[in-house]
Please model this.
Amino acid sequence: KAGVTQTPRYLIKTRGQQVTLSCSPISGHRSVSWYQQTPGQGLQFLFEYFSETQRNKGNFPGRFSGRQFSNSRSEMNVSTLELGDSALYLCASRLGGGPQETQYFGPGTRLLVL
Amino acid sequence: AQSVAQPEDQVNVAEGNPLTVKCTYSVSGNPYLFWYVQYPNRGLQFLLKYITGDNLVKGSYGFEAEFNKSQTSFHLKKPSALVSDSALYFCAVRDIMNYGGSQGNLIFGKGTKLSVKP
Model:
């Protein structure tokens, strides 16, 4: 079974621009979560989508948004980019039914904001 | 609030020696604990998890972890380290406190860099 895929893998943007990242979960997984990883803050939870609905959100400004499609694929959007948004953005999927479930991570999208 | 702590930023071991990467947690209720490994420029790979039952959990690549409720610890171990085990290791707990049940996201420790020298 194919793993979680993320596109693009690398991205360079300038301040003020916006960016859209894409994530395709493992087949059959209905939950998709997004995390931001930076050297200073470590791994921080952004949001989780389940069956096209956001059911959980971390402590990030409204510039960070996401959505999920009927095929469980998810996109994350960051508007008005700031230098501090430079990070590795990780997507993870799981079946979505219980806290014991394992989340499987994609390779990440590395975003550099200049 | 639920949290995990990895007290060591870096652990150095010689190849062939046993390794331990430490993790302590603070949760209300039953903990759901996970270990992940991250190689350079890669995503996180799942190693093992503790849900309930046997305190010794066996995972991928020869890793195991010991759940200790009294010490609120979940240390990762391997009997004989390999150079290829050198990577960044993360301990995580499912945050079921604020959102309940399956809605809980993972809360990660800061990570421990494991360096295995030949």
